[in-house]
Design brief:
Aspartate Aminotransferase, domain 2, alpha/beta, seven-stranded mixed beta sheet, 2 domains, binds pyridoxal-5'-phosphate
Length: 439
């Protein structure tokens, strides 16, 4: 039996700088056929673009259209009766994600529900899980958190009558470093944990691409009695997760990035079983979180009876048309499996890092950790010279990558639809554009 490379090490590929190596890697890739299940945008000349923006908006699964069409057809043919009559009744539509959603993030069925969008879910979770007291009201966040998260957290702090300037505890990289060291977050928790009500961090940092050690951070938080939640916007569908075993209290994510659910797709929410079955937890209630057998009852004294599990945090009935594409995408995730996707992802980024090393020194700096366990699909590259001209030159070559001010290019080859040849073309374009932008 051949053994897989140990988790955390680079797959032992024989990378070479020439194009034939990319072709060879693609021929050997067992996941290569999945690319054909997606619509890949084309350049002006009809050639497929080098799409490295799956961390921002995942590509459309070809199966999505028929699933959306089915819902339009059910609506046309059945009207209100489509809530109960069709193959996928709207009344229980969210339950179609019960198993696949749980597998995706390493949860038990019932710990995950697809609902709303990310920031709203963050608010709903903080309503339940951020319960500050005078002595313990602080929130631990990472430096340069995504703006929406920063606004949401600050607004919850203010809602409870505290001042975000005082109440935010920030985990930062050391002077001169770009990444947050796990041991520093642990030390911070050791030191100030008793003031901290909630640890609210990203699983994968959107700018640097760093995968945080969620398990260790959660354990350190728990030792101090802090509640711990993660924003998995850049982690879900990107890296393997074991939210249940890591004893994360709650997590939220969006579905339009690595999960290919389409623009504004319905997001996800994880509530650990330990809380999911506690009907006494306060929450922003609505009829869809109520026991379905009694949710229609009109009572003079409305008695909210939460459903078990994450389902009990639903508020409104789900937007079926916005959920249908996600069904197509999660079926593909299930079929391919996170283990195989992760293996290819590490190979793609390993290859990209290798090709970047071949470029003349000094022009680019990789911010993302090189260690396999600390990187996901995204490689963040700091362009030292004329970054904006560089991005324009890449776009002219049909490379779709993302740029964050002032100088960071984020390239995310994703294992479901990107090829090794995409990575090679990107590196070529970067080399060419880099020297053109030098002048
Ligand atoms: C993409 C992203 C968001 C977006 O929030 P929406 O509510 O889906 O608009 C929020 N936070 C993080 C960390 C993200 O990466």
């Amino acid at each position: 039996m051949t053994s897989l490379p140990p988790e955390g090490s680079d797959p032992a590929f024989d990378f070479r700088p020439d194009e034939s190596c990319a072709r060879r890697l693609d021929r050997a890739d067992p996941l290569a056929p999945y690319r054909d299940r997606f619509h890949v945008p084309k350049r002006a000349d009809g050639e497929p673009a080098v799409y490295l923006c799956g961390n921002s908006l995942g590509l459309q699964p070809k199966a999505a259209r028929a699933l959306v069409q089915r819902e339009l057809d059910d609506w046309a043919a059945l009207g209100v009766e489509a809530h109960f009559k069709p193959e996928a009744p709207w009344y229980s539509y969210h339950e179609l994600f019960r198993e696949t959603g749980a597998r995706l993030v390493g949860a038990l069925p019932g710990e995950v529900v697809m609902m709303n969008s990310l920031t709203i879910n963050l608010h709903l979770m903080m309503e339940t899980f951020y319960r500050p007291t005078a002595g313990r009201h602080k929130v631990l966040v990472e430096q340069d958190a995504f703006p929406s998260d920063a606004y949401a957290v600050a607004s919850r702090i203010e809602r409870h009558g505290f001042d975000p300037k005082e109440a935010l505890v920030v985990a930062r990289p050391r002077q001169g470093e770009a990444l947050i060291r796990t041991e520093d977050t642990e030390a911070l928790l050791e030191d100030r944990g008793r003031e901290i009500a909630l640890v609210m961090m990203s699983g994968v940092h959107y700018l640097t691409g760093q995968v945080l050690d969620m398990e260790r951070i959660a354990a350190a938080a728990r030792r101090q009695g802090c509640v711990v939640g993660f924003d998995l916007a850049h982690a879900a569908g990107n890296v393997p997760l074991r939210l249940h075993d890591w004893r994360i209290d709650f997590a939220v994510w969006c579905s339009y990035k690595y999960l290919n659910g389409g623009p504004g797709a319905v997001g996800g929410c994880f509530v650990h079983e330990a809380h999911g079955n506690n009907p006494r937890l306060p929450r922003l209630a609505g009829w869809w979180g109520n026991d379905p057998d009694t949710r229609f009852q009109v009572r003079s004294q409305a008695q909210f009876v939460p459903r078990q599990g994450a389902d009990g945090w639903q508020v409104s009935n789900p937007p079926i048309l916005a959920m249908a594409p996600l069904l197509a995408s999660l079926a593909i995730f299930d079929e391919a499996g996170m283990r195989a996707l992760r293996a290819k992802s590490l190979a793609l980024t390993g290859y990209l890092l290798y090709l970047l090393e071949q470029l003349p020194g000094g022009r680019f700096e990789v911010i993302t950790p090189v260690a396999a366990e600390a990187r996901g699909c995204q490689v963040s590259i700091r362009a030292r010279r004329r970054p904006r001209e560089l991005v324009a030159a890449l776009a002219a070559e049909g490379v779709v990558a993302d740029f964050r001010e002032p100088d960071v290019i984020r390239a995310a080859p994703v294992p479901l639809y990107n090829t090794f040849h995409d990575v090679w073309r990107f590196a070529q374009a970067l080399a060419g554009a880099g020297s053109a932008a030098r002048g």
